[in-house]
Structure prediction request, 363 residues.
Amino acid sequence: MNLTFEPATGFNLILGENGSGKSNLLDAIYHLSLGKTFKPYALTQNINYKTAADFALINSAISNDEQLKELKIIFALQNESERRRLEVDAKPTTKAKFTQHLLVILFAPHNINLIIGTPDIRRAELDDFASLCDYKYAVYIQEYLQVVKNRNRLLKNIAAGEAQVKQLDYWNERLIGLGSYVITKRLLILEELIPEVIRLANTYFGDEFNDVSIHYLSRFTQAEYKKGLSFATLQTTIANYFEQLLITGIDKEINSKQTLYGPHKDDFEFMLEGKDMKLFASRGQQRIVSFLFKLASWTYLAKLKNSKPIILLDDVMSELDSKNRVLLEEIIQSLKTQTFITTTHATDYSEKFSKQFRVLKLS
Prediction:
């Protein structure tokens, strides 16, 4: 796709047939926020295989509070692997810093995987959101995952008799420090999101979802976790428990040759009336609650940053009945933020709402 587009500050409709590149345009905006794709494909597929080019470029000018910034991502193929260069105002930067400039919340049919998908999908979603909320988290989660890789390599060497258990001390200290921060931040973010999900559910769906809850699943929630604790107190409690797990579980880790304890093993689940929504909720209920979770995320981030995130709606109307289509239009308009909408049919939206669109037709 080779495209230059100056969007409206309000509602932007990207219209086109399947395969015309609608989702790719939203994905380019998503890249500019999080430095990654929202699609489940390999990095090397960012560059159009139909061309002879060995690079691709996403370049944008963003204005926020009268400050103008240039965000750029350069993709290049090197020895059949893809390299990315992230720039802010023509200067190279890290992914953690890059994610602090453009706030985006994506609404898409695959959001239902938050409920029915695998733990790694939910962890990635929460990590991406926490990275937008907190620069320190963005740094720490990347460092933590690298520590896990290095520690796993050392555990394999210990199991093979090529290294000593004592060599784990440094990596254990790093694992505990970074991991306890990650877990604490996740817990406190979810603690804020849950009441917002319930409030939104009551506002738009009555009492059908007023018993929805989100449970963080971790060995570390056994560490006398109580709501209302300060960040420092909770992190210290988790860090102490983390240290004990590493001490008592060392033989298991050596035998399995991998790090068995930490936030990379955690998960969270959605409950409705005390039952796991993955198993006991209808497809419609799962879709609504995943939407409410994303909407609560938007509200939380807007308050935290004092800036309204951009909304990306990727073909969401195709999954909704007429009643919920009307409701979605009402909700999106009430947020009063820049919005990008993809669809194959302009008639998916009401005539009244459509009059507010700037339309980009792709073919």
Observations:
- The radius of gyration is 22 Å.
- The mean pLDDT is 91.
